[in-house]
Predict the 3D structure of the following.
Amino acid sequence: MAERSDYLAHQFVDPIQQEQSSTLGMWVFLATEVLFFGGLFAAYTVYRFQFPEVFQHASHHLSVLLGTINTGVLLTSSLTMALAIHSAQTGHRRQLMAFLIITMVLGIGFMVVKGCEYHKDYVEHLVPGHSFAFDARYMPQAQMFFVLYFLMTGLHAVHVTVGIGVIGVFLILSLKGRFTPEYHTPLEIGGLYWHFVDIVWIFLYPLLYLVGHHR
Amino acid sequence: MITADAPALPTGAPQLPREHFLNVEYGVKSWLLTTDHKRIALMFLVAVTLFFFLGGAAAALFRLELLTPPGDLVSDHTYNKLFSIHGVTMVWFFLIPSIPAVLGNFLVPMMIGARDLAFPRLNLSSFYLFVIGGLFTLVVMFTGGLDTGWTFYTPYSSMFANTYVIAAVTGIFIAGFSSIFTGLNFIVTIHKMRAPGLTWFRLPLFIWAIYATSVILVLATPVLAITLTLVGVERIFHVGIFDPAIGGDPLLFQHLFWFYSHPAVYIMVLPSMGVVSEVITCFSRKRIFGYHFIAFSSLAIAVIGFLVWGHHMFVSGQSIYAGMVFSMLSFAVAIPSAVKVFNWTATLYRGSVSFETPMLYSLGFIGLFTIGGLTGLFLATLGIDVHVHDTYFVIAHFHYIMVGGAVMGYMSGIHFWWPKMTGRMYPDGWGRLAALIIFIGFNLTFFPQFILGYLGMPRRYHSYPPEFQVLNVMSTAGASILAVGYLLPLVYMLWSLRYGRIAGPNPWRAKGLEWETTSPPPTDNFEKIPTVTEGAYAYPERKETAHG
Amino acid sequence: MLGLWVQLSPDRASTVAGKVDHLFYFLIAVSVFFAGLIFTLILVFAVKYRRRPGNEIPPATKDNLMLEILWTAIPAGLTVVIFLWGARLFYHIFTPPTGTIKINVVAKQWMWKIQHPEGKMEIDELHLPLGRPVELNLISEDVIHDFFVPAFRVKHDVLPGRYSVEWFKPTKTGKYHFFCSQYCGTGHSRMVGWVYVMTPRDYQRWLTSGQPTDPLAVTGERLFQRVGCAACHGQESNGRGPSLVGLFGQTVHLQNGRTRLADDDYLRESILRPNAELVEGYQPVMPTFKGILSEEQILELLAYMKSLPPKEGEVQP
């Protein structure tokens, strides 16, 4: 048997098995995540079906501009993440680190925009609870829209934050030169996660921001 | 089964191996920080046993209360807390982790010829998530209690209950991630880490069952997590997600909850079915009848099980036609279960059947699961469910599945693999006696409840009309027998740890990779990863010549 | 058993009870057959093929595809029969006939408030005439409850914020339990009561006993005037709101371009959340009556609205 590489864990026979296992593990985890968000999407579907007009009107109060900017930011970050992995595959460590930093900055940018939006919602009394205020015609169901909006985007934001942290760890690891063209599995599965977070947003964006603008 | 390096069977009395996973390291730290799947399995064993007896104690108390029609032993509020805590502990802290986290953890790598699960550290974190979730539940149990039932129906749980709902759902939420990570670990391990030559259709059926279970764990549990989060959010902020007064729909909770909780029943019983497939073959000394049918029926149950949740809501106000669809699908999920029962029975045919403790539990499983499954048909039948829904008929039915099925399977498995886990045998005579006591006590406890339910006694009743008393007395009497039955194994299993006969690598002369290594196994499971050249259950076969 | 008589089947006091029991017995027969088959086979195999000298090594297991198909197909066929039978019965149980007596049931933690169309109120008791189909209009003030009469073999959850319907036709005079069978909190097991099925004459006598009451519709009309509905929705209204004459059971056109059947739920909704589904051509000027009217009072208003004759020239379906 060939020399066991130092990154090969004891339970695996060879690096290929290790890499495949890690990748499959992430895919299974993402399946869990889909169902995790799925519960909220189900609630959204039920209530939007029950109160279609209310959801339209409520949606108008979200800033499509900020939502669109964030969509662009997140999509770009997915691209830079993919480029980071490509750099790792080709062994360009500087490039890898540069792309990781850009991805992180974009992720943080997304969160900053999101924070501004939340602040704007707060000022406009759109946060569900006692201070919630809305056109009486659409009360109280309008609150339901915002409950779902905050839960869905909030859960998504938690995922983005985790992703930023993970990329931060990758940055440190690549600083230490842990990733080589032979071994960069963590980057790949981290990338899968980051793309997933992006895809969730691709669903949230039209459902929350654009419903008010169709027809 | 393995081609090379099979340790020659020692002559004379079997000896414990010199070094194995239990004695390789000592000390608390070597356990608490272990990533060895076998040690984690044993830690889970201790934890779920604790919860089993806690949940059982709650049941004993409310069964005593139900001895007489008026509520005279404990107050109604206390009674409600008792059955709630019984449900929560038994479902989430015993039944769901029991076989997967204990036997699955111990056996999956060994049965497929791997050194460990794919993600050992994730496995350890699974254990700690379970412990943290369990601590929440213990705190709830011993401080304020919980009175929503394990089902947390809204709007009661979200607006009216004044017990520790948030702490309880937090505990379950955390324990849910323990389930998810365990399931994820199994799926990846079974896909990627099988020994050379171990194709899918050579896998032991226990692995198929665990695989199907893991799929449910991974796909259903997150929905529970988000649902309970919604209950918590609603309780804290009262934003109206489930409150009809401000536009919410309390039935949405039931849909989301049962989307998890019905498949959860299969999380509990599928692994037991896997155990039974192993045990029946070993004690009939025969290849299993209809291997492919049993394997695929596990997957069929896992898949169809996701589509039947609405049968918990036939009288809740969902449309008649939705009810019909869910009824039809519920019948569909009964078929694969029936197929399994027929195949197990057929395996006995022309076997060489012996009746050691694990076999008694497995035969008990088939009998009780058959009754549980058949009474499930009553509940799937729309016109009948209207009458027996939310009565003791339902209680009896699901205890036949969860205790008669899942727990019997678990006991069978623990007795079957105990020598592998500890290297020692328990006294088989005591084992058989306990199995018999449990079987009798179980039937006496739960069979009368079918009649009670048909007579119309609703579930979760603290006091009841006097005409239901005779059957309740029978049930409580049975419960006390059952309690003795469950305490016995606790005693003789602990006894066997020190005084039990040394088992040797394969005391049952069973087939399967886990029996090819020492008992207890070494930390890495196998000296050398085995190569598999034959299918599961390749027991020696008699040449058919003169004999019939 | 110890001289005690164990009842094995509940009273059978409604038209569906016998039907449910027949299907139940059929299922018992199916279960006894299959359980008996499995138990017998296991016992026979266990004895006949027990391990003994000469039987240590059994012959090879031979799979049998025919057998597998057979024992998949037969149970599958049987479940289709059971499903169809059960579904038909279910449809019958939950589809009220016409000409029912409509009784309102308001559930709250932990009591049942029941009101007859003649205005008679009762608590945790339900008096019924023999042989007349009865339709219960169920609603809860708080959590989910469930109205279950074992002797009638029917139950239905009682939801907050939405009317549920349960019907039956009593066939035997007597006194029967009814239970709340959806867990509803501390006093759940106290939320029980009695159904009294009486001969029609006794029922009439009971209805007219005690303090005289006005029919629900009459009380509802008084309420209609008192809380100010009449100003906008009455016979000589100011036109700010649609007339309610003959509205019940009609299809209304809503502001948002949709249509909606004016049933109990819609009318209740419009009293509590007037602007949620506004009728076309009217302004959102109606105040909410949430917290002002109790569930019972809303039911009285509904009774009044339903008592108004249909509009001229329109035929009730």
The interface with chain B takes residues 9-13, 17, 20-21, 24-25, 28-29, 31-33, 35-40, 42-43, 46-47, 50-51, 128-129, 140-141, 143-144, 147, 151 of chain A (CB under 8 Å). Helices of chain A lie at 15-50, 52-60, 64-90, 93-123, 141-175, 185-210. Chain A has one domain: 36-209.
